[in-house]
User: What shape does this take?
Amino acid sequence: MEFQITIAGEAGQGIARSADLISRDFVSRGLYVFNYRDYGSLIRGGENFNLLRISNKPVYSNNWKSDFALVFGRFSGHHLKKLNMGGTSIGTLPGVKTSFNTHDMLKKIGAPSISANSILLGALYKAMDQPLNNLMTQMNVFGKHAGINKKAAQLGYDQYGGQVKPISFSKGKGPRYFVSGSEAVAYGAVSSGLDLYLAYPMTPATPVLHLLANLKNQDIRAVQLENEIGVINAALGAGYAGATTMIGTSGGGYALMGEALSLQGMSEIPLVVYMAMRPGPATGIPTYTGQGDMKFVVNGGHGDYSKVVIAPGDPLEAFERTTEAFYLSQKYRVLNVILSDKHLAESNYTFDKKPVVKVKPQRFLTKPGKNFKSYKVTADGVSPRAAAGTSLVRATSYEHDEFGYTTEDRGIANTMIEKRLRKARTLEKAVSKLSPVKTYGTGDNLVISWGSTKGAILDAIKEVKGTKFLQIVYLKPFPSSRVKTLIEKSKNVVIVENSATGQIADLIAENTGHSASKKILKYDGRPFGQKELVAKLRRAFK
Assistant: This one.
């Protein structure tokens, strides 16, 4: 049993809220829902739509045609052409199969214009032959406005006179967790002992700032500063004082942080960065998705220094990998970037299980004695860390000796550079225990990708026989030997990426010596749909 619903209208008409109500209802009844959001950069008036794919089996991506469409708003008529054969449309536009004069209906019950979507939701439930009481329960989220929205939904349900296509399913077993990538990163940071989150708003990273700022009963400070340069420098200052700190941004903001990223490399103050990509260059398509910043993040910052870049593929991983990011950053005094994008950040996924945390983040702070060496030369490249204020603890942007005193001595410079770079080998050993790659399926055909493309690939390879999927989770340090082994054991290799150049292919070639000539690329700001990717994979492996 599977079907998809399109909800389309103008920004400000409650499109996202309507999608959320339906999603949470079906999840509460034991089904799996994938919720994709598509919106422009206008706060009001531009077209928004959500695609809800609902199934009795796990689904991790959307398709571009639906079985039901709720359309209201002047830009939404084209969605009528994106219905599957026999699909049902409900709305306020000419051409829909069941049209409502919501203005008069709202006037009849004394409801505001925003409640028009509740009328259409009621009609949708009648069209699907679903009990309205489940939707009514979800509408309690409206608080004091719940009553009028329930009345509007009941009116739409009663006055629907179109075709009824019963959706039947048996209730699933066990709990269902419905979560976005942004929520997962935020909650992963909280479970890691986060003290301070700093950010300047930039889509699609902003939801994490909002979530953390609105948390109740948590001793966490979320602060918006004047710009991204202030954000990263303040974060390093807080880390110097011993705070567990995280910052968030997107591509343009990350560019502004470039100098201070290298300041982290020299000062070795732990820092976790949440970097949520969108298409560039420059402003690009600011509310859509893309993976074109990967090389920039892996290589960003001047000078040679060790860092970690993690790219989770779904919210479950986002939670788990966020805890790993804090653990590695604190223990090894490195920069750790959690690389996401709009698709992962703002889509909602359904899971049966809670995340499994492999490592327990901690501060790894020592009590310094007299003449504490902030940058002690060690065999693994990791110097002991102490918080400023507990003793004389130095941190600097300049080359320095073990005590943190500025130096230009070439012998000391060589020693300290080599000490910092030894952490790269230490990190490789640590990361090798944290599943830096994951594989799915079996066969001689190999799909390689990373990040949010995971969902569509998992859904697609169910229909493309003989196909295995290699997901690269740790982009730095790169899991060279594991990737190389899988490539050499495969007959055909195809790269899948939401970028114009297929950057992961270059990273693979750099680290393994293998080049992948076949690439399936998409760079219009939209993610891959399952059926779309199935067709592309079949052509690639033919």
